[in-house]
């Protein structure tokens, strides 16, 4: 088989997958392949998949399935990411035209797997449970020149009963602080202004390596010193690991943004126990109270699952009440869907779909009203916006430190700079403003 000359990569799911795709793009570019945006012109197709929801999985299975039926020219097809880990050899059985399967812990092996396949023409698979710590993050090729994801910890040890991640990404493995600092220094030298530290649970950082004596807040103090990086964000957090030290770091470090993803998942302590979230509603609310008293302007984000097995209307109303009280800035609300290989699968998925959807819509409507109120409160004020790029309508687009999207008119030269923008209106979830002179 001939060495491929071009590749197309499609990413599904979360920011971790986006970063893994950036790393694979870097690896393939280094190998001499050219990235193309049209899959029909590519010699190699990679689908970096997500398993977190049933719909995400069905979408990608359908997409790859179609390729087996309609394509005349035969590209090499690789499936990577969480679905690769969850289904392993099963992917070859369901999609016999797939040529290689590469798990989330094996992206270092992309070159080898490709070589194996090119030499032998036989399907190749690498799906190790343990993350290979020799991954070269510096090879990543990012689309943005302004903001970058930086991985600091992989895997998860929490085992929430609905979640496949501990099984698809394996146990927590922190990345050495000196490697992270080196990467962020390099990004700063290349002109990047914002970094988002990534992990399934960034606040667990360093707990698996006590000998480093560097927990998440310690890392933030070190990264804040790097000249040129104006903003540091982090995703995602587990409430149990949001410590007072972290709250003080958010308050005291100029580059650390005052936006905290603080996912409660459900507002009923009984459901939280069933989810194995290891905090009660009261403990969660106490942490939010602590954060708000230390960082009064902190904006909060959350993830919610409605319709978890046995969730009653009263228990859903507890979630609704938490929303009314906290007024999240950002909320990702989903209906529960059972996932193969998770402990929750042992419970009957007993909440009818229409009830789940009704709960989702009620909560989404409340959230939309609250966001609109937050936006009304911002009108007439001036906020610092990091300008990221031009949008499709030709306006400049960026975000405030609290992650609010802002658009305004201005020259290209402003991309990559922080501008003071006077906010005068908004549509949907975007604020509109003028540069403040
Ligand atoms: S904390 Fe829970 S929901 Fe988040 S990745 Fe780990 S197991 Fe999944």
Structural summary, described in words:
The protein is globular and about 60 Å long. The mean pLDDT is 93. It has 3 domains: 6-126, Methylthiotransferase, N-terminal domain (Rossmann fold, 3-Layer(aba) Sandwich), CATH 3.40.50; 137-375, tm_1862 like domain (pyruvate-formate lyase- activating enzyme, Alpha-Beta Horseshoe); 379-435, Nucleic acid-binding proteins (OB fold (Dihydrolipoamide Acetyltransferase, E2P)). It starts with 5 loop residues before the first strand and ends with a strand. It has a 6-stranded parallel beta sheet, sandwiched between helices. Strands 15-16-17-19-18 form a 5-stranded mixed β-barrel. The protein has a 3-stranded parallel beta sheet with strand order 7-10-11, with helices on both faces. Helix 12 packs parallel to helix 13 (353-378). It has 13 helices and 19 strands. It is an alpha/beta fold and 437 residues long. Residues 156, 158-160, 163, 165-166, 200-201, 238 line the site of iron/sulfur cluster.
